[in-house]
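Thread title: Can someone regenerate the structure for this chain?

I was given the following input by a collaborator and told the matching structure tokens would be attached. They weren't. Posting the sequence so someone can regenerate them.
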Amino acid sequence: MKICFAASSGGHLEQIMMLYPLMKKHDSFILSEKTTYKFNPKEINTHMVIQINRREILFVFKMFFLFLQSLFIFLKEKPDVVISTGALATIPICLYAKFFKKKLIFIESFSKITTPTITGKLMYKRADLFLIQWEELKRYYPNSTYGGGIY
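Best answer:
Regenerated them for you:
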């Protein structure tokens, strides 16, 4: 089984790296944004995609390019499962997982205790397994699974 671990840079990436023991157990790769943020992929194959911000003027063009980049990576790597902690840069790979009938696991951000994220709201109905790290989020995601913190 091949697993894609998808996360934007910063805290989302830090959270997904908490799953490193799972990455080592399976054929895995990481998808994240190309930024100045440095992280240690710990010898896991890594693909970097364009960084995107929904408030920038070139958002639509960058999003189109991000979808192309993500499709190329998806077709090259052929993951069976995509596990994501969000955010915006991971939406295309998550949608491709569903389009190609692969499993999607979404982990809502640890930093969101009482309100949902935009990406979480988009992925909630699409994910095969939607995990929350705070029980308070059950009111927004009633069919989610409380998994506790991944830290």
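DSSP finds five helices and seven strands in the chain.
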